[in-house]
Each structure stands twice: as C-alpha cells, then as structure tokens.
Q: What sequence folds into this?
C-alpha cells in the first residue's frame, strides 16, 4: 500500500502509452490494469478506503477462481473424454511390420516369424573352447571361424543372425554364460519354391524387392499395421497343380524352362502363375520374351472376322507357296489345296493367315495387335512385366510373319491377357494379382462379342479335330491353339531350339459372360521330338484342366463334339495327327 | 433474513478457535487425496496386468504364426502330391467319378421292407389279464 501513499502516484501516465506499444491487446491489458489502480485512488479520494482492500481481495479471488475453474474443466475433460486406451494399446496388438500374404482362400503364402540373433560376450564365458564345441554341436550351420573370433575377442559381438526358434531353444538349452539372443523380424516363405516368382522376396529391412512383395509393398505394410493379412488372387490349389504338372511336363520333354499361367478371363485375376526352373530368379512368365508361333493365328483370324474381311467360309489358296518378293511362305503340313478360313485355322496354314494379314494391311493389323495388348507390356501390378520386342517396320513380309507369330517377341503374360480378351466377349481386362479383380478396372472392347463366340467355337474345334487333341479333358470343353516356333540362334531359326505353346480356355461353350478360365503353357526348348506345342504343352493343359475343374466349380458336361465322359459323338479324326 | 443468520451462525460455529467448516473441509480434502491415491494405485496395477496380458497375446500370436507357417510348409501342394504319389494315389479317372445326382443310378436305394406289425397272440385263458399289458408294449 505504501506505493500508493503518494497522492500523485496514480497521476503518472500509463506505461507505453506515449511510446505506443504495437500490439493492441497489450495496450488494452495495461489500460485495464491502470483503470483498476486508479479505482483504488478514487476510492481513497472518496474517503472510502475500505473499498480499496475489498476490491483487491475480490480481484485476487476472481483470478484464483478462474484458474481453478480452468483446472477443474481440464481435469474433467481428461478424465471423461480422453481417447480410449492409454497404456500399451497404441497400435494393434497383432500388428506386424509386413502383413501375412495369403491366397484367395486364406492359405498362408508368406509370413513374418521372429528369428533371433546370437550374441556372445566372451568375458562371461568360462571355458571358451568347450563353449565353441557345444555351440557348434547344437547349431551345425554356425561358422566355426566366426565363433572363435568372437570368443577370443573382448566385447559382446554378434555371431549369427536368423536363428529359428528351434535353433535358439537348442543353444539356450546349453545354459552357457554370456550367450544372449536378440529378436529380429524375418520374412518367411513356408511354401519354399512354390509360387516364389509370384510372391517375390523382401530385403532384410522388410522392403519388397521383387514380385508381389514389391508390387504391393505399401499395402502389405499397411495391412500389417492393422493386424490383417493381405490376400492375392492366387488359388494355392490351382497353383500347386500348375507347378506339379509343369514340372512333370518339363521332365517329360526334357526342356530348359517352362511357363504356366491360369487366369479367370472374366475378372482378369491370376489364379496361378509358375515359371520353371524355380531356382532361376528370372520370372519367365513376366519377363522372358518368346516368338510364340501359330498361337498368333488366333489373333489374325479374329482380326479378319472382326473387320468383316473374312468369314468362316472365305477361301484362301494354299495350293502353292505364297511369294512376297523373294520370300517364300510355305505350310508345315502342306495341304496343297484351297482352304476355308476354318480349315486354315485347323490346319494351321501359314499361307492362309499370311494372305489374310497382307489383305488386311499394316494399319488394321497394327490396330488389332495394339488392341490385344501385344505391342505393350502386359498391364499387371508386377514391376517385372516387360515390354515386348516389336517389329520396326510393317511391310508385307513382316505382316505375313506376324500373322503366324514370328517377328514379334512377347511375354507369356501378354499372351494370357490377349487370350482372355478374345474369350470373354472381346473385353480386354488388365490382369491382376488382387483378389476380386482390379478395383475400378475398365475393360476395353477389342472385338465384338460375336467374334469372341466364333473364336471360342473355333478354339474348341481345334482341340476336337485340329492340332490340340492332346489337351482334351473329358467333359470340360477345352478349346485352344497350339503354337510352335523355332528360336533364332546365331541369326538363323534353329529347329533344335524350339518353343512349344498351348493357349487354352475352358469351358469353351456357353455365353460370352460364362465363367471361363484360360490356361497358357509354354515349354522352352524341349529336348524330345516332336517339339511342337501339341506334343509338349497340350497334354499338360489337359491334365491341369482335369485336376483344377473341381476347385473352380466347373462341371463336366457334354457338348456337340464329346460326351461328358470324353467319348466322341461323331467320328472326328485328328486331321494331321502330329499336333502342329 | 433469518436463514442468512442461521448460515452465519453455522459458519461462526468454532471448536477451540477453529471454524467447524474449515475442519470439515480439511477432512474432506484428506478423504479425497486418499481416494485419489487408491484409484491411482488400482489403475497402476490394472495397467500392469493389461501390459502383461498384451505381452502374452503377442507371444501367443508369434507362436500361432510359427505354427501356421509350419502347417503351411507341411501342407504345401508339392509335398502333398509327392507323398500321395509315393503312397500309390493318383487323380481319379473320369469314369470312376460320380456326382451326387447320379448316386441313385449307381446304387439304387433298396425298397424299404414292409413293416409287419404282428398282433400279439394271446392265450385265450390269460386274455383278460394280459390284454392291456400287450397294448402298452405295442
């Protein structure tokens, strides 16, 4: 109070007023304070000094009340409205760095298992030599040199990473001093080599490097954080059959490599994809290029039918070789007669399809090849999907080559996607490894539904009476086209280095939007003779269709050509009998 | 006015110079501090229990993952097929497969034998006594 004893004390100007504090709020606050101070002065001047003390007490009371009300409100808010779960429940209890990858039915394909790093502190080991011997006995794969180096050192060092829980238990049971373990999360593929090319691998830091692990890296990590698993479109049962039959086909044909792809043509989902040998890191289904031969006749014929340039009864003169400049195109099985388009297809006549392609011209051929995705990398999530090797010029000779599958090298995945488009009513659907198909995928109409239906029947007839007879599976209405090509070795097409393909679809009957599955089998450099697709690839297709039909819910039924048990209805015969 | 006076009297009611109101207030504060202490101690023990349960869940989860991986390894199609082939099994031939609908053709359901209800032959002499008993047995 003594400060205010000076009657002129409150006459001094408010601080900052003449100088002008820039912030208006500060000015307002200082003015308010000075007003209160002045009110004490006024009270004393009015001879009511007790008012002075009362007002001061009241002001202090109000200030403290305000602070306590704020504290009480804050405490009530924290107690009643705080977010649920405080201690220990940050994140999901089952959260992992990478989600389990499962197939479409939930079967496990890849998971994270806690492994252990083995650490030894030599200062705590009593008998170092005995310890080394015991650890080596319990853990045979440990490097003895590394073990001795750590044991003879003077500080705690890591001896080995990636001990399985079993190995850890074995070492732990030795009850040695100074031996400790530290957990480390590790990606495990319990199926070993099965589906390895689809799944890919991750690095030790938990980032995908190849395959689905790379393609869905972020989504797998996000699903892991939520404690969920990440489903792929793969059906492990189908994948297993595909791998086993592919291995069998390779063993039978003594081939260098092989590819198998099974897709749902209506959704674009990949149900199985295998590349043999599995030890090879190259995924031949997505990254290897092949000239596939006669399988391309399907696309040439489809283009001819779709443009309206030809119908099934259009005649093509295959009675003599087709000359383009100096190049002479002949048939592998010379029929030396005039053929209808259907016969051209069933006899796999190079002359017929070359004539058709040259008639259609480069613009049409290029348009249809683009529509079927044969000139671009197959659209799929996998980063490995490679671009095809396309022809540089589109002259008549190239057109003729393209019409029967030479002069263009594509990946098996492109072939699978194109066959899907041809057999699902003409809609090109991007292939996907996502369960349930690619969300928001837009199908592109490439040929008319009528062309698709015609081709389905043609593919079926090719199995019943053409070169694909060995792909027949009783009652499953398999349709397909063989392809056989020689590889370019040192600038020449070498018949001892061949590629045998069979691109199939089943069931081939029914409406265009019926459930339908495509099977593509490609055998790379078969060692047995004959090396044609009808011999090396078609039997595998038949066996695969036979075994996967129950999983896919395809019923055995009769069609106009065969009974449900596979007996012939009319007496068809294999026109060539050599499966070309 | 009298109410105000009553309140003032209660307020001024003192025990050895200390207002009762203050004594009661202090006791209430003491009780509150003790109850907060109890609540916090209980919460700490609960959260320790939650943490231990969550650790157990994580450990069990890891064990489940390990066992699932082991099951997947043992059930992989390649291994199962090799084992089946070694055991002499093979895919069933189409001629030996049948659907549910064709079961009646393969093995016709036998006609149910007519159930003959034999009426009890009761000796004439015992008829009045045994009659009701036989009916019960039926």
A:
């Amino acid at each position: 109070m003594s400060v205010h004893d000076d009657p002129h004390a409150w006459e001094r100007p408010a601080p900052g007023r003449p100088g002008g504090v820039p912030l208006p709020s500060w000015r307002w606050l200082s003015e308010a304070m000075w007003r209160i101070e002045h009110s004490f002065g006024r009270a004393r001047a009015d001879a009511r000094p007790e008012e002075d003390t009362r007002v001061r007490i009241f002001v202090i009371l109000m200030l403290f009340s305000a602070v306590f009300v704020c504290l009480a409100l804050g405490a009530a808010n924290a107690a009643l409205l705080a977010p649920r779960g405080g201690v220990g429940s940050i994140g999901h209890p089952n959260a992992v760095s990478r989600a389990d990858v499962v197939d479409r039915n939930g079967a496990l394909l890849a998971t994270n298992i806690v492994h252990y790093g083995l650490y030894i502190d030599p200062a705590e080991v009593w008998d170092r030599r005995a310890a080394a011997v015991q650890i080596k006995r319990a853990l045979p794969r440990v490097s003895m040199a590394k073990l001795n180096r750590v044991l003879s050192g003077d500080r705690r060092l890591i001896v080995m990473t990636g001990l399985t829980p079993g190995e850890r238990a074995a070492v732990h049971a030795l009850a040695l001093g100074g031996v400790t373990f530290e957990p480390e999360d590790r990606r495990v593929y319990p199926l070993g080599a099965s589906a390895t090319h689809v799944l890919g691998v991750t690095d030790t830091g938990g980032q995908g490097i190849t395959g689905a692990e790379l393609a869905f890296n972020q989504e797998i990590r996000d699903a892991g954080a939520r404690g969920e698993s990440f489903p792929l479109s793969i059906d492990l049962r189908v994948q297993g059959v595909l791998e086993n039959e592919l291995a069998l086909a390779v063993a039978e044909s003594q081939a260098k490599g092989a590819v198998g792809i099974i897709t749902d043509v209506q959704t674009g989902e990949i149900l199985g994809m295998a590349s043999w040998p599995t030890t090879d890191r190259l995924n031949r289904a997505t990254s290897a290029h092949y000239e596939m031969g006669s399988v391309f006749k399907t696309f040439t014929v489809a283009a001819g039918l779709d443009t309206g340039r030809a119908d099934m009864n259009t005649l093509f003169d295959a009675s003599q070789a087709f000359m383009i400049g100096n190049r002479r195109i002949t048939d592998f099985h010379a029929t030396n007669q005039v053929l209808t388009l259907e016969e051209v297809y069933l006899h796999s006549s190079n002359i017929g399809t070359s004539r058709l392609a040259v008639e259609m011209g480069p613009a049409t051929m290029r348009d249809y090849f683009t529509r079927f995705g044969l000139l671009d990398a197959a659209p799929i999530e996998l980063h490995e999907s490679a671009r095809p090797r396309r022809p540089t010029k589109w002259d008549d000779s190239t057109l003729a080559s393209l019409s029967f599958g030479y002069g263009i090298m594509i990946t098996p995945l492109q072939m699978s996607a194109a066959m899907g488009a041809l057999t699902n009513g003409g809609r090109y659907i991007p292939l996907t490894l996502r369960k349930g198909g690619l969300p928001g995928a837009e199908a592109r109409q490439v040929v008319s539904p009528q062309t698709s239906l015609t081709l389905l029947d043609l593919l079926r007839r090719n199995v019943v009476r053409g070169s694909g007879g060995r792909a027949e599976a009783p009652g499953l209405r398999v349709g397909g086209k063989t392809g056989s090509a020689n590889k370019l070795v040192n600038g020449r097409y070498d018949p001892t280095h061949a590629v045998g393909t069979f691109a199939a679809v089943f069931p081939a009957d029914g409406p265009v939007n019926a459930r339908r599955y495509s099977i593509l089998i490609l055998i790379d450099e078969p060692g047995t003779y004959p090396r044609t697709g009808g011999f090396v690839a078609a039997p595998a297709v038949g066996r695969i269709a036979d075994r996967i039909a129950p999983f896919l819910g395809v019923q055995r039924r009769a069609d106009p050509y065969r009974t449900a048990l596979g007996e012939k209805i009319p007496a068809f015969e294999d026109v060539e009998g050599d499966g070309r | 006015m009298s109410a105000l006076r009553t309140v003032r009297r209660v307020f001024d009611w003192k025990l050895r110079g200390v207002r009762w109101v203050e004594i009661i207030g202090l006791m209430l504060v003491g009780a509150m501090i003790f109850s907060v202490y109890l609540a916090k101690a209980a919460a700490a023990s609960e959260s320790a229990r939650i943490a231990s349960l969550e650790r157990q869940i994580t450990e069990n989860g890891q064990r489940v993952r390990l066992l699932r991986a082991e099951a997947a390894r043992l059930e992989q199609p390649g291994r199962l097929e090799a084992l089946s082939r070694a055991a002499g099994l093979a895919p069933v031939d189409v001629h030996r497969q049948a659907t549910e609908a064709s079961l009646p053709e393969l093995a016709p359901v036998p006609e149910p034998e007519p159930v003959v209800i034999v009426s009890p032959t009761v000796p004439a002499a015992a008829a009045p006594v045994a009659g009701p008993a036989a009916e019960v047995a039926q």
Q: What stands out?
A: The first strand of chain A starts at residue 101 and ends at 102. The first helix of chain A runs from residue 24 to 45. Chain A has three domains: 2-74, 101-231, 239-552. The CA atoms of residues 248 and 431 of chain A lie 26 Å apart.
